[in-house]
Amino acid sequence: MDVAPTLSRNQRAPDRRPARTRAALLAAFRDLMFAQRYDRIDVAAVCARANVGRSTFYAHFSGRDALLTASMQPLLTVLAAAATGETAQLLWLLEHFWEQRRHGRVLFAPPLRQVLERTLADAILARLGPDQRLAAVQIAAAQLAAVEAWMTGAVAATPARMAARIAATANLAQ
């Protein structure tokens, strides 16, 4: 028996083009980000690599920083969750960071680091509450400093040890 949903005459299948376009823009940005400095990436280059027009880009993102934020959101969400004691995905994230550590020089170079830190602080603030801006900024800075030191070899630790240290940043909110 076929139980696949059917569409009536007046219904249309969801248009998947916007999701494909967004994915193409994110992939193009990621490729460019690891090929050149963030401050040298412009919207025109992302559009050319994704094979879309500028107006299409701006239908999805307000600018380059918004594209960066969207590309890092899944990872930053895990770090933000750790700030409130939710650590279910933290070890996975840190193992992923370790496997991709060759990209650390890109992620922690100015001005990218500042954008990431601001975005992470905002994500943490959304979890802690509006009266916790100082704690959110402090936790974001502590988390990224620890990850940067680890990924660049300034400190040695296992992913599990790093997860414990990142999880401990939740205490800064108290």
TrEMBL record:
Gene3D superfamilies on file: Tetracycline Repressor, domain 2
Keywords of this entry: DNA-binding
Residue span, HTH tetR-type domain: 19-79
Residues annotated to bind DNA: 42-61
Highest rank taxon of the organism: Bacteria
PROSITE patterns named in the record: HTH_TETR_2
GO molecular function, one term: DNA binding
The name this protein goes by in its record: HTH tetR-type domain-containing protein
Naturally occurring in which organism (per UniProt): Sandarakinorhabdus cyanobacteriorum
